[in-house]
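User: Predict the complex with adenosine-5'-triphosphate.
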Amino acid sequence: MTEKPLISIEGIARRYPAPGRQTTTIFENLWLPIRRGEFVCMIGHSGCGKTTVLNILAGLDAPSDGEVIVDGKAISGPSLDRAVIFQSHALLPWRTVLGNVAFAVKSRWPKRAKEAIEEQARRFIELVGLGGSERKRPAELSGGMKQRVGIARALSIEPKILLMDEPFSALDALTRGTLQDEVRRICLDTGQTTFMITHDVDEAIYLADRIVLMTNGPGARIAEIVENPLPRERSRIDLHRHPHYYALRNHLIDFLVTRSRTLRDQPADGHDPRHPPVVRPSAAPELVVTTPGDAATLPLAAAHKH
Ligand SMILES: Nc1ncnc2c1ncn2[C@@H]1O[C@H](COP(=O)(O)OP(=O)(O)OP(=O)(O)O)[C@@H](O)[C@H]1O
Ligand SMILES: [Mg+2]
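Assistant: Here is the predicted structure with adenosine-5'-triphosphate placed in the model:
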């Protein structure tokens, strides 16, 4: 594995100076390579800095230290190479479904003919299951449908990176499940590189290739990177039948319930921020696969040995 990562988070920190008080360090020394086509989820308690990391990846916020390299270039601001799906969809209320998606397509390819723009927009509206609703306005749509438009809009610009901040958290369980299926199918079919924040352990297990666990803030750090031991061809309904499922789920829940706090309060002795421990929970005794090496290639290279 010598492939260069598409995204390389290199020692980023975010600090908020407060006049007359101590500067708050939300997180520091965060390192994370993400391969092309990989689906990475980040999990951690409220306030540990997940949205801040996502905003930095989007170019909407700048790190106080370190940098993020995408495809060989340091991020210096927002770009249409990186599409964001927020928790609330932020659609233009006066535009139709088609108008909202076409607006994004046009900003990506301003010289394209109107027909080609609409064709691209329709393709993605179809893909998220909204064919037939092109002429509706956001006020006429359910929450799940609005979120679908947000997903269609993000994907329609064919971004190098898809960034999602708890995109399904406001939806009912049924709609959430359907949208998770759709996003997973689209990401697999198109080889979409994705970084997603979630609070939902099962969502991470279903969608992610790797799950990044953050300790509690302030001063949060990547405690561990969990490799998903389930086969890539997995389905949401029989996830729990897989022999490794409960080991993985328990590992993630144990982390959220206790270790995210105890790890923060412990001195980080021997913790190498460039090479956080990589763990692959399984029905057999737990495997810690970290070895010193190139952070960019470590997780997969190590995983392949097992
Ligand atoms: N402008 C600001 N000034 C000071 N502190 C800030 C500012 N913006 C964010 N913070 C702090 O940064 C921390 C991280 O915020 P962030 O929104 O990234 O957390 P999060 O992990 O996404 O939480 P949640 O799970 O609740 O969405 C929080 O403690 C927040 O109070
Ligand atoms: Mg957040």
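Residues 16, 26, 44, 46-52, 217 surround adenosine-5'-triphosphate (ligand 1) (CB under 6 Å).
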